[in-house]
Amino acid sequence: MRRRRLAPVAALAAAALTLAGCGLGSDGSGSSAATPTVDANAKVTGEVSFQTWALKPKFTSYVENLIKEFEAKYPGTHVTWLDQPGDGYDKKVLSQASAGQLPDVVNLPPDFALPLAKQQMLLDVGAADPKIKDEYVEGGVQAYQYQGLNGTFGYPWYLNTDIDYWNATKFAAAGLDVKNPPKTFDELLAAAKVMHDKTGGKEYLMSRLPGIGDFTNAGVKILSDDGKKFVFNTPEAAALLDKYRDAYKAGYLPRDILTQEYLGNSKLFTQGKVAWTTGGGNAIQDFVKDNPSLKGKVVPSPALDTPPLYVQGLSVSAKTKNQAAAIALARFVTNAENQAAFAKIVNIFPSTKASAQDPYFSKSDGTPESDAKVLAFESLAKAKVLTPPIISGATNDFIGQQISLAISGKISSQKALDAAVAKANELLTQ
Amino acid sequence: MRYNRWFTPWVLVIPALAWLMVFNLWPSINTVILSFTNARPIGGGTFVGLRNFERLLHDDQLRWALLNSVIYMVVCLPFLTILPLLLAVLVEKKLPGITFFRTAFYTPVVASAVVVALIWQWILDDRGLVNGLAEKLGVISGPLPFLSDQWLLLLSAISLTIWKGLGYYMIIYLAALGNVGRDLHEAAAVDGAGPCRRFVHITIPGVRGTMILISILISVSALRVFSELFILSGGKGGPGGRDNSVVMLIQQYSQGFEGNLGYASALSIVLFFVTVVPMLVLARLNRRGAEA
After folding, report:
1. Are A397 and A211 in contact (CB under 8 A)?
2. Which residues of B touch A119 (CB under 8 A)?
3. Which residues cross the membrane (chain B) (predicted)?
4. Which single residue of A26, A155, A277, B38 could bond A269 by disulfide (Cβ 3.0 to 4.6 Å)?
5. Which of B237, B241, B256 sits opposite A90 (nearest CB)?
6. Residue B138: its pLDDT value, please?
7. CB under 8 Å to B208, separation ≥6 — which residues?
8. Which of A27, A259, A401 sits opposite B148 (nearest CB)?
9. Which residues on chain B are in Cβ contact (under 8 Å) with A21?
């Protein structure tokens, strides 16, 4: 009797365990190799899927025309376009990758592409297309080359960077000259003090916590040469945090920054609560759209120190059944002509070397909006990826938490950095 | 046609059983298995034995999260057990316009947790309503750091939970109060018992079972708090991540391409046991009380 009762329970447990075993997935990637196995000059024909990120409905006609032109250039091809919503794109790509259903050509920023490249889910497009280094800007290509991995795992599609924006009214109120804004971090701190003192602590210049990008800018090495260890707990990084902590303690930064999300800086600037923010080349339009009272009061200037480089790219799935068509499509979408056309309908910058001389990006019509665009375009020449793509998710959160502890004065900067590095290394190696 | 065959009960419970197995039993078993691995969202993982549980012992963040969860439960439990009962007693009376108050007290329950937390964030901000008013009235010279101080942030989140939960538990008490015999109150009143005495000696014993149920519900939800702390801390767990709850930690560790599903599963198991203990204690207390 007891046996009878136990039997179904045992069967149930066995079934559950078998099913649960599936949860682990395979240790490998399901992909045998990431190196292309077809000749890049093979005939381009057949079906290929193409996934973009939040381009519908604003850029539907641009993408549809692009696809039509590609299909006309390569008769016999058929492109299936998938556009995913802006929110939750990482989760969507993650679910596609775990199900082995990545589209043939997929828009992935470098930090999304890295974990997929590690699992050999992306094609080394550099091996398939040796010209990639000649045609695209160095920073764009480097963004898809990772320490510890051989290959280039995406075509850079478009670029952006940040420049500085200042509120002229607040500068005038504090007796500061907006035409001669701070150019270094130390000048920024000095201006923050003036603004605080002259307005009785009512106005703020800065409203941003430092991050990995600021450490890179201060000359701090983030990762070891082999990319296997974080090493940013240096005295230079601690000194930078000390400066922020002292500024916070003196009231030069709003206290809320310890709980604000990343875009707090830009939001507070738009609300007219702080006098400085960073933003892309088109940020003035957004500020004025959200707060029309800022019209004519926002002055752009180049970013402090090295500007950050933001890259978007197209990667090719290692599992694609039509490598020739997938590579051709990725190349076609990111070629100089198509990137330039895209950059003229949305404020991004092309990643192809051929676009560098295009006067559309390099000549201003004299308006602050146009000045900002040109400044951003010029900044791209020295812009760098300041935050290694390996820093994401829990690692990023933990580093941020330790930085806020140091800024709030609860622990010393060095102790916070040591804890951040120890935890980041633990998360990296587990 | 015969319906009383031996398999009839099984046929009736199969849909519910299948649901439970697919959405409860199987994920639970999978969580236990994952907790012994270093699984990632892509690429799977390997068996690592008790390494995740060893890490738990040295995890400062977990210590803070557990402390926060316990404080949350200890503060919320008395407030959310007693205050809704008092409110229910007040609005139970059939007075003109009482429906308005019932609705008003229930409104925060209907509002989405995220919307409510965002409104509270705006109220408690350094330049928000509370600090603005207090500064205008000269009560404080500088803003109180409701959202940037570890303990004030926790207190703000607890206040939000209590404010939001009042209406919900009030409705449960209202239903329970309907079962407390009116004749008992009348008899006690005739014997000279005042409202306070009647509340202590008739109302509370009358809703004792409901109080235990509510205590269990509050304990469980307080230990599993997420939305309030997440929104008020901007998703970052406050200064140094010291205002994280265990659920927030699980979310942080499991998110993204590099999420550590193994460690997040080990945290889930800890949360499960932490949640079950007060539930068992309260259930035991209830049984003892009923036997006495």
Report:
1. no
2. 42-43
3. 7-26, 70-91, 103-123, 151-176, 207-226, 261-283
4. A277
5. B256
6. 86
7. B289
8. A259
9. 33
ipTM: 0.70
Which residue in this structure is represented by tokens 């307005």? A199
Q: Tens digit of pLDDT for each residue in A382-406?
A: 888 999 888 877 788 889 889 988 9
pLDDT at position B286, please? 74
- Give the β-pairing of A163-167 and A46-53: unpaired
Domain ranges of chain A: 46-160+310-379, 163-308+386-429
Amino acid at B171: I
Q: Sheet of A298-301: strands edge to edge?
A: A276-279, A163-167, A298-301
- Length in residues, chain A: 430
| Nearest residue on chain A to B249, alpha-carbon basis | A394
- The single-letter code of the amino acid at A389 is P
Residue of B nearest to A397 (CA): B236
Q: How far, CA to CA in Å, does B69 sit from each of A270, B58, B120? A: 36, 18, 20
pLDDT tens across A250-293, in order?
Answer: 999 987 777 654 457 888 899 888 999 999 888 998 899 999 99
Fold of A46-160+310-379: D-Maltodextrin-Binding Protein; domain 2 (3.40.190)
The domain defined by B56-291 carries CATH number 1.10.3720.10:
yes
Test mutation, A24, A118, A268, chain B, max B CBs within 10 A: A24
Structural contact between residues B33 and A17, judged by C-beta atoms closer than 8 angstroms = yes
Residue A20 vs residue B43, higher pLDDT? B43
- A412 contact B CB<8A: no
Decide: A274 and A207 in contact? Cβ < 8 Å: yes
Domain residues of chain B, as ranges?
A: 56-291
Two structure tokens written together for A231: 């090493």
